[in-house]
Protein backbone atom coordinates (compact mmCIF):
# COMPACT_ATOMS: atom_id res chain seq x y z
CA UNK A 1 0.00 0.00 0.00
CA UNK A 2 2.78 2.36 1.02
CA UNK A 3 4.66 1.93 -2.23
CA UNK A 4 1.65 3.01 -4.24
CA UNK A 5 1.28 6.13 -2.23
CA UNK A 6 4.93 6.97 -2.71
CA UNK A 7 4.73 6.57 -6.44
CA UNK A 8 1.62 8.67 -6.79
CA UNK A 9 3.21 11.93 -7.95
CA UNK A 10 5.01 10.20 -10.82
CA UNK A 11 1.87 8.41 -11.86
CA UNK A 12 -0.32 11.45 -12.02
CA UNK A 13 1.79 12.73 -14.88
CA UNK A 14 1.47 9.39 -16.61
CA UNK A 15 -2.22 8.88 -16.13
CA UNK A 16 -3.03 8.86 -19.82
CA UNK A 17 -1.99 5.40 -21.09
CA UNK A 18 -5.62 4.33 -21.06
CA UNK A 19 -6.42 6.82 -23.80
CA UNK A 20 -6.25 6.10 -27.49
CA UNK A 21 -3.51 8.39 -28.92
CA UNK A 22 -0.90 7.15 -26.50
CA UNK A 23 -1.29 3.50 -27.34
CA UNK A 24 0.95 3.39 -30.46
CA UNK A 25 3.83 4.70 -28.40
CA UNK A 26 3.45 2.07 -25.73
CA UNK A 27 3.14 -0.66 -28.35
CA UNK A 28 6.38 0.56 -29.85
CA UNK A 29 8.02 0.30 -26.49
CA UNK A 30 6.86 -3.19 -25.66
CA UNK A 31 6.84 -4.74 -29.08
CA UNK A 32 4.73 -7.63 -30.31
CA UNK A 33 3.31 -8.66 -26.95
CA UNK A 34 1.30 -5.48 -26.67
CA UNK A 35 0.23 -5.61 -30.31
CA UNK A 36 -1.29 -9.01 -29.66
CA UNK A 37 -3.16 -7.68 -26.64
CA UNK A 38 -4.56 -4.77 -28.64
CA UNK A 39 -5.84 -7.26 -31.18
CA UNK A 40 -7.60 -9.28 -28.50
CA UNK A 41 -8.76 -6.29 -26.53
CA UNK A 42 -12.29 -5.96 -27.98
CA UNK A 43 -12.90 -9.67 -27.43
CA UNK A 44 -11.54 -9.53 -23.92
CA UNK A 45 -13.69 -6.52 -23.17
CA UNK A 46 -16.76 -8.22 -24.53
CA UNK A 47 -16.20 -11.42 -22.60
CA UNK A 48 -15.57 -9.42 -19.43
CA UNK A 49 -18.86 -7.63 -20.00
CA UNK A 50 -20.68 -10.90 -20.51
CA UNK A 51 -19.09 -12.36 -17.40
CA UNK A 52 -20.07 -9.29 -15.39
CA UNK A 53 -23.70 -9.42 -16.46
CA UNK A 54 -23.84 -13.17 -15.89
CA UNK A 55 -22.51 -12.74 -12.34
CA UNK A 56 -24.98 -9.96 -11.64
CA UNK A 57 -27.77 -12.20 -12.89
CA UNK A 58 -26.62 -15.03 -10.63
CA UNK A 59 -26.53 -12.66 -7.64
CA UNK A 60 -30.05 -11.44 -8.36
CA UNK A 61 -31.39 -14.96 -8.84
CA UNK A 62 -29.77 -16.09 -5.61
CA UNK A 63 -31.40 -13.23 -3.70
CA UNK A 64 -34.78 -13.38 -5.35
CA UNK A 65 -35.45 -17.02 -6.05
CA UNK A 66 -36.51 -18.12 -2.54
CA UNK A 67 -38.91 -15.18 -2.35
CA UNK A 68 -40.24 -15.94 -5.81
CA UNK A 69 -40.65 -19.60 -4.93
CA UNK A 70 -42.60 -18.71 -1.80
CA UNK A 71 -45.03 -16.51 -3.72
CA UNK A 72 -45.46 -18.87 -6.66
CA UNK A 73 -46.06 -21.83 -4.32
CA UNK A 74 -48.66 -19.90 -2.36
CA UNK A 75 -50.55 -19.36 -5.61
CA UNK A 76 -50.87 -23.04 -6.48
CA UNK A 77 -54.03 -25.00 -5.69
CA UNK A 78 -53.59 -27.33 -2.71
CA UNK A 79 -53.68 -30.57 -4.69
CA UNK A 80 -50.80 -29.48 -6.91
CA UNK A 81 -48.72 -27.85 -4.22
CA UNK A 82 -46.67 -30.92 -3.39
CA UNK A 83 -46.13 -32.29 -6.86
CA UNK A 84 -45.81 -29.27 -9.07
CA UNK A 85 -42.32 -27.83 -9.35
CA UNK A 86 -42.86 -25.82 -12.49
CA UNK A 87 -41.18 -22.43 -12.28
CA UNK A 88 -44.05 -20.54 -13.85
CA UNK A 89 -47.61 -21.10 -12.83
CA UNK A 90 -50.65 -19.60 -14.45
CA UNK A 91 -53.42 -18.76 -13.67
CA UNK A 92 -52.83 -18.01 -9.98
CA UNK A 93 -55.08 -19.78 -7.56
CA UNK A 94 -56.13 -18.06 -4.36
CA UNK A 95 -57.48 -21.06 -2.43
CA UNK A 96 -54.62 -20.96 0.08
CA UNK A 97 -55.29 -17.32 0.82
CA UNK A 98 -59.04 -17.87 1.17
CA UNK A 99 -58.61 -20.73 3.60
CA UNK A 100 -55.95 -18.76 5.49
CA UNK A 101 -58.50 -16.02 6.14
CA UNK A 102 -61.41 -18.39 6.79
CA UNK A 103 -59.77 -20.98 9.00
CA UNK A 104 -57.24 -19.00 11.00
CA UNK A 105 -57.10 -15.78 12.98
CA UNK A 106 -54.89 -14.25 10.35
CA UNK A 107 -56.75 -10.93 10.09
CA UNK A 108 -56.79 -10.45 13.86
CA UNK A 109 -53.09 -11.30 14.00
CA UNK A 110 -52.40 -8.92 11.15
CA UNK A 111 -54.17 -6.12 13.01
CA UNK A 112 -52.23 -6.94 16.20
CA UNK A 113 -48.97 -6.71 14.28
CA UNK A 114 -49.99 -3.46 12.62
CA UNK A 115 -51.05 -1.96 15.95
CA UNK A 116 -47.75 -2.98 17.56
CA UNK A 117 -45.78 -1.53 14.67
CA UNK A 118 -47.61 1.82 14.71
CA UNK A 119 -47.32 2.14 18.49
CA UNK A 120 -43.64 1.19 18.46
CA UNK A 121 -42.87 3.70 15.72
CA UNK A 122 -44.74 6.52 17.44
CA UNK A 123 -43.37 6.05 20.93
CA UNK A 124 -39.82 5.37 19.87
CA UNK A 125 -39.79 8.41 17.56
CA UNK A 126 -40.96 10.73 20.33
CA UNK A 127 -38.74 9.34 23.07
CA UNK A 128 -35.64 8.94 20.93
CA UNK A 129 -35.97 12.45 19.54
CA UNK A 130 -35.92 13.95 23.05
CA UNK A 131 -33.08 11.71 24.23
CA UNK A 132 -30.95 12.20 21.13
CA UNK A 133 -31.52 15.96 21.08
CA UNK A 134 -30.67 16.24 24.74
CA UNK A 135 -27.57 14.14 24.25
CA UNK A 136 -26.27 16.45 21.51
CA UNK A 137 -27.35 19.85 22.87
CA UNK A 138 -27.42 19.71 26.67
CA UNK A 139 -24.30 19.95 28.74
CA UNK A 140 -23.84 17.18 31.26
CA UNK A 141 -21.30 14.59 32.28
CA UNK A 142 -21.25 11.13 30.81
CA UNK A 143 -22.63 11.98 27.36
CA UNK A 144 -20.35 9.50 25.65
CA UNK A 145 -21.31 6.93 28.25
CA UNK A 146 -24.94 7.46 27.33
CA UNK A 147 -24.38 6.99 23.63
CA UNK A 148 -22.06 4.04 24.21
CA UNK A 149 -24.69 2.40 26.37
CA UNK A 150 -27.20 2.75 23.54
CA UNK A 151 -24.80 0.93 21.26
CA UNK A 152 -24.30 -1.59 24.01
CA UNK A 153 -28.04 -2.05 24.52
CA UNK A 154 -28.83 -3.04 20.99
CA UNK A 155 -26.26 -5.79 21.19
CA UNK A 156 -27.91 -7.36 24.23
CA UNK A 157 -28.85 -11.01 23.96
CA UNK A 158 -32.64 -10.80 23.41
CA UNK A 159 -33.25 -13.42 26.08
CA UNK A 160 -31.47 -11.29 28.64
CA UNK A 161 -34.48 -8.96 28.25
CA UNK A 162 -37.18 -11.53 27.48
CA UNK A 163 -36.68 -13.82 30.49
CA UNK A 164 -36.93 -11.10 33.16
CA UNK A 165 -39.80 -9.43 31.27
CA UNK A 166 -41.75 -12.68 31.24
CA UNK A 167 -41.23 -13.04 34.99
CA UNK A 168 -41.94 -9.41 35.84
CA UNK A 169 -45.01 -9.13 33.62
CA UNK A 170 -46.51 -12.10 35.43
CA UNK A 171 -46.36 -10.31 38.75
CA UNK A 172 -47.69 -7.00 37.44
CA UNK A 173 -50.33 -8.55 35.19
CA UNK A 174 -48.91 -7.62 31.79
CA UNK A 175 -48.45 -11.20 30.63
CA UNK A 176 -50.27 -12.01 27.44
CA UNK A 177 -51.13 -8.37 26.74
CA UNK A 178 -50.14 -6.19 23.83
CA UNK A 179 -49.04 -3.51 26.33
CA UNK A 180 -46.38 -5.87 27.60
CA UNK A 181 -45.29 -6.65 24.07
CA UNK A 182 -45.12 -2.93 23.28
CA UNK A 183 -42.69 -2.43 26.17
CA UNK A 184 -40.54 -5.24 24.80
CA UNK A 185 -40.59 -3.82 21.27
CA UNK A 186 -39.62 -0.42 22.62
CA UNK A 187 -36.73 -1.99 24.49
CA UNK A 188 -35.31 -3.31 21.22
CA UNK A 189 -36.10 -0.33 19.00
CA UNK A 190 -35.23 2.61 21.28
CA UNK A 191 -31.45 2.09 21.48
CA UNK A 192 -31.24 1.91 17.71
CA UNK A 193 -33.51 4.94 17.31
CA UNK A 194 -31.47 7.05 19.73
CA UNK A 195 -28.25 6.00 18.05
CA UNK A 196 -29.48 6.91 14.57
CA UNK A 197 -30.98 10.24 15.60
CA UNK A 198 -27.96 11.13 17.71
CA UNK A 199 -25.81 10.86 14.59
CA UNK A 200 -28.30 13.02 12.79
CA UNK A 201 -28.65 15.82 15.35
CA UNK A 202 -24.91 15.82 15.94
CA UNK A 203 -24.21 16.73 12.33
CA UNK A 204 -26.77 19.54 12.41
CA UNK A 205 -25.21 22.93 13.17
CA UNK A 206 -26.43 24.70 16.27
CA UNK A 207 -26.54 28.02 14.34
CA UNK A 208 -29.96 27.14 12.96
CA UNK A 209 -31.56 26.94 16.38
CA UNK A 210 -29.60 29.93 17.54
CA UNK A 211 -30.99 31.97 14.68
CA UNK A 212 -34.51 30.90 15.59
CA UNK A 213 -33.87 31.71 19.23
CA UNK A 214 -32.55 35.16 18.35
CA UNK A 215 -35.85 35.66 16.54
CA UNK A 216 -37.67 35.00 19.78
CA UNK A 217 -38.26 31.27 19.82
CA UNK A 218 -37.55 29.29 22.95
CA UNK A 219 -35.17 26.37 22.52
CA UNK A 220 -38.12 24.03 22.73
CA UNK A 221 -39.92 25.83 19.91
CA UNK A 222 -36.73 25.89 17.88
CA UNK A 223 -36.43 22.14 18.35
CA UNK A 224 -40.02 21.51 17.25
CA UNK A 225 -40.16 24.05 14.43
CA UNK A 226 -36.62 24.02 13.06
CA UNK A 227 -34.71 20.91 14.06
CA UNK A 228 -37.40 18.27 13.64
CA UNK A 229 -38.55 19.33 10.14
CA UNK A 230 -34.93 19.44 9.01
CA UNK A 231 -34.33 15.96 10.39
CA UNK A 232 -37.14 14.39 8.40
CA UNK A 233 -34.83 11.91 6.61
CA UNK A 234 -33.43 10.77 9.95
CA UNK A 235 -36.89 10.45 11.43
CA UNK A 236 -38.07 8.41 8.44
CA UNK A 237 -35.08 6.08 8.80
CA UNK A 238 -35.86 5.62 12.49
CA UNK A 239 -39.53 4.97 11.70
CA UNK A 240 -38.65 2.34 9.10
CA UNK A 241 -36.27 0.47 11.35
CA UNK A 242 -38.62 0.60 14.34
CA UNK A 243 -41.26 -0.83 12.05
CA UNK A 244 -38.94 -3.60 10.87
CA UNK A 245 -37.93 -4.59 14.40
CA UNK A 246 -41.50 -4.70 15.62
CA UNK A 247 -43.03 -6.30 12.53
CA UNK A 248 -40.44 -9.07 12.30
CA UNK A 249 -40.08 -9.76 16.04
CA UNK A 250 -40.52 -13.42 16.87
CA UNK A 251 -38.64 -13.84 20.17
CA UNK A 252 -40.62 -11.48 22.38
CA UNK A 253 -44.00 -12.33 20.88
CA UNK A 254 -43.25 -16.03 21.39
CA UNK A 255 -42.35 -15.56 25.04
CA UNK A 256 -44.79 -12.85 26.13
CA UNK A 257 -47.99 -13.75 24.24
CA UNK A 258 -49.95 -16.96 24.76
CA UNK A 259 -53.48 -16.60 23.48
CA UNK A 260 -54.19 -16.92 19.76
CA UNK A 261 -56.23 -13.71 19.72
CA UNK A 262 -53.27 -11.60 20.77
CA UNK A 263 -50.54 -13.25 18.72
CA UNK A 264 -48.69 -11.18 16.17
CA UNK A 265 -48.08 -12.46 12.66
CA UNK A 266 -44.68 -14.18 12.99
CA UNK A 267 -45.76 -16.33 15.93
CA UNK A 268 -49.22 -17.02 14.54
CA UNK A 269 -47.71 -18.15 11.28
CA UNK A 270 -45.22 -20.47 12.92
CA UNK A 271 -47.95 -22.07 15.02
CA UNK A 272 -49.85 -22.90 11.82
CA UNK A 273 -47.00 -25.19 10.88
CA UNK A 274 -46.96 -26.75 14.32
CA UNK A 275 -50.42 -28.19 13.77
CA UNK A 276 -50.63 -31.88 12.87
CA UNK A 277 -51.84 -31.45 9.34
CA UNK A 278 -49.16 -29.70 7.34
CA UNK A 279 -50.88 -26.66 5.91
CA UNK A 280 -48.08 -25.50 3.67
CA UNK A 281 -50.38 -23.65 1.30
CA UNK A 282 -51.75 -21.43 4.07
CA UNK A 283 -48.32 -21.04 5.66
CA UNK A 284 -46.76 -19.84 2.41
CA UNK A 285 -49.70 -17.53 1.72
CA UNK A 286 -49.31 -16.08 5.22
CA UNK A 287 -45.56 -15.68 4.78
CA UNK A 288 -46.09 -13.85 1.48
CA UNK A 289 -48.54 -11.49 3.17
CA UNK A 290 -46.07 -10.70 5.98
CA UNK A 291 -43.46 -9.83 3.40
CA UNK A 292 -45.80 -7.77 1.24
CA UNK A 293 -45.88 -4.55 3.36
CA UNK A 294 -42.10 -4.76 3.61
CA UNK A 295 -41.70 -4.95 -0.15
CA UNK A 296 -44.00 -1.95 -0.62
CA UNK A 297 -42.08 0.15 1.89
CA UNK A 298 -38.80 -1.10 0.47
CA UNK A 299 -39.66 0.05 -3.03
CA UNK A 300 -40.65 3.53 -1.89
CA UNK A 301 -38.04 4.08 0.80
CA UNK A 302 -35.03 2.20 -0.58
CA UNK A 303 -32.85 5.25 0.13
CA UNK A 304 -33.65 5.22 3.84
CA UNK A 305 -33.10 1.49 4.11
CA UNK A 306 -29.60 1.89 2.76
CA UNK A 307 -28.97 4.96 4.93
CA UNK A 308 -29.92 3.07 8.07
CA UNK A 309 -28.01 -0.02 7.03
CA UNK A 310 -24.78 1.72 6.27
CA UNK A 311 -25.06 3.63 9.50
CA UNK A 312 -23.82 0.27 10.67
CA UNK A 313 -26.65 0.24 13.06
CA UNK A 314 -29.22 -2.28 12.14
CA UNK A 315 -29.83 -5.44 13.99
CA UNK A 316 -30.36 -8.62 12.11
CA UNK B 1 -25.78 27.96 26.06
CA UNK B 2 -29.34 28.63 27.10
CA UNK B 3 -30.94 25.51 28.42
CA UNK B 4 -34.66 25.44 27.99
CA UNK B 5 -36.33 23.83 31.00
CA UNK B 6 -38.81 21.95 28.85
CA UNK B 7 -36.00 20.38 26.84
CA UNK B 8 -34.23 19.36 30.03
CA UNK B 9 -37.42 17.97 31.55
CA UNK B 10 -38.37 15.99 28.44
CA UNK B 11 -34.84 14.68 28.13
CA UNK B 12 -34.74 13.53 31.73
CA UNK B 13 -38.21 12.02 31.47
CA UNK B 14 -37.43 10.10 28.29
CA UNK B 15 -34.05 8.90 29.43
CA UNK B 16 -35.48 7.62 32.74
CA UNK B 17 -38.20 5.73 30.89
CA UNK B 18 -35.60 4.27 28.57
CA UNK B 19 -33.35 3.30 31.46
CA UNK B 20 -36.31 1.69 33.19
CA UNK B 21 -37.39 -0.31 30.12
CA UNK B 22 -33.91 -1.60 29.33
CA UNK B 23 -31.98 -1.39 32.58
CA UNK B 24 -34.84 -2.77 34.65
CA UNK B 25 -35.01 -6.16 32.91
CA UNK B 26 -31.23 -6.36 32.84
CA UNK B 27 -30.92 -5.98 36.61
CA UNK B 28 -33.89 -8.24 37.20
CA UNK B 29 -32.32 -10.95 35.02
CA UNK B 30 -29.15 -10.88 37.10
CA UNK B 31 -31.27 -11.05 40.28
CA UNK B 32 -33.29 -13.97 38.95
CA UNK B 33 -30.12 -15.90 38.30
CA UNK B 34 -29.46 -15.99 42.06
CA UNK B 35 -32.87 -17.41 42.86
CA UNK B 36 -34.48 -20.72 42.27
CA UNK B 37 -38.18 -21.17 41.60
CA UNK B 38 -40.04 -24.34 40.69
CA UNK B 39 -42.44 -22.41 38.48
CA UNK B 40 -43.40 -18.87 37.56
CA UNK B 41 -45.98 -18.91 40.35
CA UNK B 42 -44.06 -20.29 43.31
CA UNK B 43 -42.09 -18.20 45.77
CA UNK B 44 -38.47 -17.84 44.63
CA UNK B 45 -35.76 -18.97 46.99
CA UNK B 46 -32.28 -17.44 47.29
CA UNK B 47 -29.69 -19.97 46.18
CA UNK B 48 -26.63 -17.79 45.67
CA UNK B 49 -24.32 -19.02 42.93
CA UNK B 50 -25.78 -22.49 42.73
CA UNK B 51 -27.54 -21.82 39.41
CA UNK B 52 -24.22 -20.78 37.91
CA UNK B 53 -22.42 -23.79 39.33
CA UNK B 54 -25.08 -26.13 37.94
CA UNK B 55 -24.93 -24.47 34.54
CA UNK B 56 -21.15 -24.52 34.36
CA UNK B 57 -21.05 -28.20 35.36
CA UNK B 58 -23.58 -29.10 32.71
CA UNK B 59 -21.86 -30.54 29.61
CA UNK B 60 -24.80 -29.24 27.58
CA UNK B 61 -23.75 -25.68 28.43
CA UNK B 62 -20.26 -26.19 27.02
CA UNK B 63 -21.71 -28.02 24.09
CA UNK B 64 -24.04 -25.08 23.40
CA UNK B 65 -21.17 -22.63 23.71
CA UNK B 66 -19.06 -24.48 21.14
CA UNK B 67 -22.08 -24.97 18.86
CA UNK B 68 -22.83 -21.27 19.05
CA UNK B 69 -19.23 -20.36 18.28
CA UNK B 70 -19.02 -22.83 15.38
CA UNK B 71 -22.24 -21.62 13.83
CA UNK B 72 -21.44 -17.94 14.35
CA UNK B 73 -17.86 -18.22 13.05
CA UNK B 74 -18.60 -20.27 9.95
CA UNK B 75 -21.58 -18.12 9.13
CA UNK B 76 -19.55 -14.92 9.45
CA UNK B 77 -16.67 -16.19 7.37
CA UNK B 78 -19.10 -17.08 4.59
CA UNK B 79 -21.03 -13.83 4.95
CA UNK B 80 -17.86 -11.76 4.71
CA UNK B 81 -16.34 -13.67 1.79
CA UNK B 82 -19.58 -13.71 -0.15
CA UNK B 83 -20.44 -10.15 0.87
CA UNK B 84 -17.12 -8.72 -0.29
CA UNK B 85 -17.40 -10.70 -3.53
CA UNK B 86 -20.91 -9.47 -4.28
CA UNK B 87 -19.99 -5.90 -3.36
CA UNK B 88 -17.00 -5.98 -5.73
CA UNK B 89 -19.28 -7.06 -8.57
CA UNK B 90 -22.02 -4.55 -7.75
CA UNK B 91 -19.43 -1.79 -7.48
CA UNK B 92 -18.64 -2.14 -11.18
CA UNK B 93 -20.52 0.02 -13.63
CA UNK B 94 -23.31 -1.68 -15.56
CA UNK B 95 -26.84 -1.07 -16.76
CA UNK B 96 -29.39 -1.64 -14.01
CA UNK B 97 -26.92 -1.21 -11.17
CA UNK B 98 -29.43 0.36 -8.78
CA UNK B 99 -31.98 -2.39 -9.34
CA UNK B 100 -29.37 -5.11 -8.91
CA UNK B 101 -28.16 -3.49 -5.69
CA UNK B 102 -31.64 -3.24 -4.24
CA UNK B 103 -32.40 -6.86 -5.15
CA UNK B 104 -29.16 -7.94 -3.53
CA UNK B 105 -30.01 -6.30 -0.19
CA UNK B 106 -33.67 -7.35 -0.23
CA UNK B 107 -33.25 -10.60 1.78
CA UNK B 108 -31.95 -8.60 4.74
CA UNK B 109 -35.35 -7.05 5.32
CA UNK B 110 -37.30 -10.26 5.23
CA UNK B 111 -38.51 -11.31 8.69
CA UNK B 112 -36.55 -14.29 10.01
CA UNK B 113 -39.78 -16.27 10.29
CA UNK B 114 -40.48 -15.89 6.60
CA UNK B 115 -36.96 -16.89 5.60
CA UNK B 116 -37.05 -19.95 7.85
CA UNK B 117 -40.43 -21.08 6.55
CA UNK B 118 -39.31 -20.71 2.95
CA UNK B 119 -36.12 -22.65 3.70
CA UNK B 120 -38.13 -25.42 5.33
CA UNK B 121 -40.46 -25.48 2.35
CA UNK B 122 -37.68 -25.70 -0.21
CA UNK B 123 -35.81 -28.32 1.82
CA UNK B 124 -38.92 -30.34 2.73
CA UNK B 125 -37.62 -33.94 2.68
CA UNK B 126 -40.71 -35.45 1.04
CA UNK B 127 -41.90 -32.97 -1.56
CA UNK B 128 -39.54 -29.99 -1.42
CA UNK B 129 -37.97 -28.39 -4.44
CA UNK B 130 -34.50 -29.68 -3.55
CA UNK B 131 -35.82 -33.22 -3.21
CA UNK B 132 -37.42 -33.01 -6.66
CA UNK B 133 -34.27 -31.54 -8.16
CA UNK B 134 -32.11 -34.24 -6.58
CA UNK B 135 -34.52 -36.99 -7.67
CA UNK B 136 -34.29 -35.85 -11.27
CA UNK B 137 -30.56 -36.59 -11.25
CA UNK B 138 -31.14 -39.78 -9.30
CA UNK B 139 -29.91 -38.71 -5.88
CA UNK B 140 -31.96 -39.33 -2.78
CA UNK B 141 -32.84 -36.60 -0.29
CA UNK B 142 -32.07 -37.00 3.38
CA UNK B 143 -33.95 -35.38 6.22
CA UNK B 144 -31.59 -32.50 6.94
CA UNK B 145 -33.05 -31.85 10.37
CA UNK B 146 -32.14 -35.28 11.70
CA UNK B 147 -28.38 -35.08 11.16
CA UNK B 148 -26.16 -32.76 13.15
CA UNK B 149 -24.05 -31.73 10.16
CA UNK B 150 -26.90 -30.93 7.79
CA UNK B 151 -28.92 -29.21 10.54
CA UNK B 152 -25.98 -26.92 11.32
CA UNK B 153 -25.37 -26.46 7.62
CA UNK B 154 -28.94 -25.36 7.04
CA UNK B 155 -28.79 -22.86 9.88
CA UNK B 156 -25.59 -21.43 8.42
CA UNK B 157 -27.01 -21.41 4.91
CA UNK B 158 -30.15 -19.52 5.87
CA UNK B 159 -28.23 -17.05 8.02
CA UNK B 160 -25.80 -16.39 5.17
CA UNK B 161 -28.65 -15.80 2.75
CA UNK B 162 -30.42 -13.44 5.16
CA UNK B 163 -27.54 -11.36 6.47
CA UNK B 164 -24.89 -11.19 3.75
CA UNK B 165 -26.64 -8.06 2.38
CA UNK B 166 -25.54 -6.22 5.52
CA UNK B 167 -21.92 -6.94 4.60
CA UNK B 168 -22.60 -5.99 0.98
CA UNK B 169 -24.05 -2.60 1.91
CA UNK B 170 -21.26 -1.76 4.34
CA UNK B 171 -18.54 -2.88 1.92
CA UNK B 172 -20.13 -0.91 -0.94
CA UNK B 173 -20.06 2.18 1.28
CA UNK B 174 -16.48 1.38 2.25
CA UNK B 175 -15.37 0.99 -1.36
CA UNK B 176 -16.40 4.59 -2.07
CA UNK B 177 -13.84 5.81 0.46
CA UNK B 178 -10.86 4.25 -1.32
CA UNK B 179 -9.26 6.90 -3.54
CA UNK B 180 -9.36 5.90 -7.21
CA UNK B 181 -5.86 7.28 -7.74
CA UNK B 182 -4.52 4.28 -5.87
CA UNK B 183 -5.98 1.95 -8.50
CA UNK B 184 -4.78 4.13 -11.36
CA UNK B 185 -1.31 4.16 -9.88
CA UNK B 186 -1.33 0.41 -9.45
CA UNK B 187 -2.50 -0.13 -13.02
CA UNK B 188 0.31 2.01 -14.35
CA UNK B 189 2.72 -0.01 -12.28
CA UNK B 190 1.37 -3.10 -13.98
CA UNK B 191 -0.47 -4.58 -11.03
CA UNK B 192 -3.14 -7.10 -12.00
CA UNK B 193 -6.69 -7.18 -10.70
CA UNK B 194 -5.79 -9.68 -7.99
CA UNK B 195 -2.81 -7.68 -6.71
CA UNK B 196 -4.93 -4.54 -6.66
CA UNK B 197 -7.58 -6.35 -4.65
CA UNK B 198 -5.13 -7.63 -2.04
CA UNK B 199 -2.99 -4.54 -1.75
CA UNK B 200 -5.49 -1.71 -2.16
CA UNK B 201 -9.06 -2.92 -1.68
CA UNK B 202 -8.61 -5.13 1.36
CA UNK B 203 -6.42 -2.67 3.32
CA UNK B 204 -8.89 0.09 2.38
CA UNK B 205 -11.78 -1.95 3.73
CA UNK B 206 -9.99 -2.93 6.91
CA UNK B 207 -11.95 -0.81 9.38
CA UNK B 208 -15.29 -1.52 7.70
CA UNK B 209 -14.58 -5.23 7.85
CA UNK B 210 -13.61 -5.13 11.52
CA UNK B 211 -16.88 -3.39 12.39
CA UNK B 212 -18.91 -5.74 10.24
CA UNK B 213 -17.28 -8.84 11.69
CA UNK B 214 -17.73 -7.67 15.27
CA UNK B 215 -21.35 -6.60 14.81
CA UNK B 216 -22.38 -9.62 12.83
CA UNK B 217 -20.48 -11.85 15.23
CA UNK B 218 -22.37 -10.46 18.21
CA UNK B 219 -25.72 -10.74 16.47
CA UNK B 220 -25.07 -14.25 15.21
CA UNK B 221 -24.00 -15.36 18.66
CA UNK B 222 -27.24 -13.90 20.08
CA UNK B 223 -29.40 -15.46 17.43
CA UNK B 224 -32.35 -17.28 18.91
CA UNK B 225 -35.25 -17.09 16.46
CA UNK B 226 -33.45 -18.53 13.44
CA UNK B 227 -32.19 -21.60 15.28
CA UNK B 228 -35.39 -22.16 17.20
CA UNK B 229 -37.49 -21.89 14.06
CA UNK B 230 -35.30 -24.22 12.02
CA UNK B 231 -34.22 -26.96 14.42
CA UNK B 232 -35.35 -26.13 17.99
CA UNK B 233 -31.78 -27.04 18.98
CA UNK B 234 -32.14 -30.56 17.62
CA UNK B 235 -31.30 -33.21 16.63
CA UNK B 236 -30.39 -34.26 20.19
CA UNK B 237 -29.16 -30.79 21.20
CA UNK B 238 -26.65 -30.82 18.35
CA UNK B 239 -27.58 -27.28 17.30
CA UNK B 240 -28.30 -26.04 20.81
CA UNK B 241 -26.68 -22.64 21.43
CA UNK B 242 -26.66 -20.42 24.50
CA UNK B 243 -29.81 -18.48 23.53
CA UNK B 244 -31.82 -21.65 22.82
CA UNK B 245 -30.48 -23.22 26.01
CA UNK B 246 -31.59 -20.19 28.02
CA UNK B 247 -35.02 -20.39 26.41
CA UNK B 248 -35.30 -24.15 26.98
CA UNK B 249 -34.36 -23.83 30.64
CA UNK B 250 -36.69 -20.90 31.31
CA UNK B 251 -39.79 -21.72 29.34
CA UNK B 252 -39.78 -25.46 28.76
CA UNK B 253 -38.18 -26.74 31.96
CA UNK B 254 -39.55 -23.76 33.94
CA UNK B 255 -36.13 -23.31 35.51
CA UNK B 256 -36.16 -19.52 35.43
CA UNK B 257 -33.03 -19.15 37.55
CA UNK B 258 -31.05 -21.49 35.33
CA UNK B 259 -32.22 -19.71 32.16
CA UNK B 260 -31.34 -16.33 33.65
CA UNK B 261 -27.91 -17.66 34.61
CA UNK B 262 -27.23 -18.83 31.03
CA UNK B 263 -28.43 -15.47 29.66
CA UNK B 264 -26.24 -13.59 32.15
CA UNK B 265 -23.18 -15.65 31.24
CA UNK B 266 -23.64 -15.02 27.53
CA UNK B 267 -24.26 -11.35 28.30
CA UNK B 268 -20.93 -11.18 30.15
CA UNK B 269 -19.12 -12.93 27.29
CA UNK B 270 -20.60 -10.48 24.78
CA UNK B 271 -19.87 -7.46 26.94
CA UNK B 272 -16.19 -8.35 26.61
CA UNK B 273 -16.48 -8.30 22.83
CA UNK B 274 -18.47 -5.05 22.89
CA UNK B 275 -15.86 -3.38 25.08
CA UNK B 276 -13.19 -4.36 22.55
CA UNK B 277 -15.41 -2.87 19.85
CA UNK B 278 -15.82 0.40 21.75
CA UNK B 279 -12.08 0.49 22.43
CA UNK B 280 -11.32 0.08 18.72
CA UNK B 281 -13.98 2.56 17.62
CA UNK B 282 -14.45 5.19 20.30
CA UNK B 283 -17.83 6.91 20.10
CA UNK B 284 -16.42 10.41 19.66
CA UNK B 285 -14.73 9.68 16.37
CA UNK B 286 -17.35 7.21 15.23
CA UNK B 287 -19.08 8.49 12.18
CA UNK B 288 -22.36 6.74 12.74
CA UNK B 289 -20.93 3.51 13.93
CA UNK B 290 -18.07 3.15 11.58
Automatic annotation (TrEMBL), chain A:
InterPro entries: BP-dep_ABC_trans_perm (IPR050901), MetI-like (IPR000515), MetI-like_sf (IPR035906)
GO biological process: transmembrane transport
Membrane topology: Multi-pass membrane protein
Tree of life domain: Bacteria
Record region (Disordered): 1-30
SUPFAM superfamilies: MetI-like
Primary location class: membrane
GO cellular component, one term: plasma membrane
Pfam families: BPD_transp_1 (PF00528)
Presence of keyword Membrane: yes
Segments crossing the lipid bilayer: 50-71, 106-133, 145-166, 178-201, 222-248, 283-305
Span of domain ABC transmembrane type-1: 110-301
Record-stated family: Belongs to the binding-protein-dependent transport system permease family.
The protein, known as: ABC transporter permease subunit
Biological source species: Nitratireductor arenosus
From TrEMBL, chain B:
ABC transmembrane type-1 domain segment(s): 65-279
Organism, scientific name: Roseovarius azorensis
PANTHER family: BLL4140 PROTEIN, DIACETYLCHITOBIOSE UPTAKE SYSTEM PERMEASE PROTEIN DASB
GO terms for cellular component: plasma membrane
Lineage: Bacteria, Pseudomonadati, Pseudomonadota, Alphaproteobacteria, Rhodobacterales
Ranges in coiled-coil conformation: none
Topology within the bilayer: Multi-pass membrane protein
Annotated TM spans: 7-35, 69-90, 102-122, 156-178, 198-219, 256-278
Protein name, per record: Carbohydrate ABC transporter membrane protein 1, CUT1 family
InterPro entries: MetI-like (IPR000515), MetI-like_sf (IPR035906), UgpAE/MalFG_permease (IPR050809)
Recorded family membership: Belongs to the binding-protein-dependent transport system permease family.
Pfam family of the protein (one): BPD_transp_1
Subcellular location: Cell membrane
Amino acid sequence: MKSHVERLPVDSSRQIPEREPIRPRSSLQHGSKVQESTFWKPFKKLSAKIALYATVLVICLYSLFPIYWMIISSLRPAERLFLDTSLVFWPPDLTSYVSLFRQTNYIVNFLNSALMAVATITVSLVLSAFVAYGATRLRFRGKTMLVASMLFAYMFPPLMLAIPMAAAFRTIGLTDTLWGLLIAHLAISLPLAVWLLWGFFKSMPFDLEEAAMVDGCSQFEAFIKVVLPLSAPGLITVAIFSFLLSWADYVFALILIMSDQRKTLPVALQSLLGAHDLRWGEVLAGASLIALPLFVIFIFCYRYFVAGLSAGAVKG
Amino acid sequence: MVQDRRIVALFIGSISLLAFIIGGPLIYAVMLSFYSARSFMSEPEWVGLSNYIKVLQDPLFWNSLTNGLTIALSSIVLQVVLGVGIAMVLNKRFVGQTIARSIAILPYFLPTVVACLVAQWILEPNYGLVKTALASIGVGMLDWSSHAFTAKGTIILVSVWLWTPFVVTCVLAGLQTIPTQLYEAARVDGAGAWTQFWHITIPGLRSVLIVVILLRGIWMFNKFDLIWLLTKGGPLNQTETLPTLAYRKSFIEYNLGGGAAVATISFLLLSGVILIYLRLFPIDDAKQGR
